[in-house]
Amino acid sequence: MTTNPTSDLRRLNPRIVAVVLLIAFVIVIFNALSTGAYTIRLGELIRVLFQGPARDASGDSVAHAVFWNVRLPRVTLAIVVGASLAVAGVVMQGIFRNPLAEPATVGVSGGAAVGAVIAITLGLSRITLGVQVFAFIGGTLATAVVYGLSRVDGKTDIVTLILTGIAINALSGALIGLAVFVADDDQIRTVTFWSLGSLGLATWRAVAMVLPLAIIGIAMSTRFSRTLDLMSLGDRPAEHVGVPVERVRLQTIAIIGLLASSAVAATGIIAFVGLIVPHILRLAMGPKHRDLLWSSALLGAIVTLLADLAARTLLSPAELPLGVLTALIGAPFFLWLLRKMRTGESTWS
Question: Coil, strand, or helix at residue 151?
Answer without folding.
Answer: strand
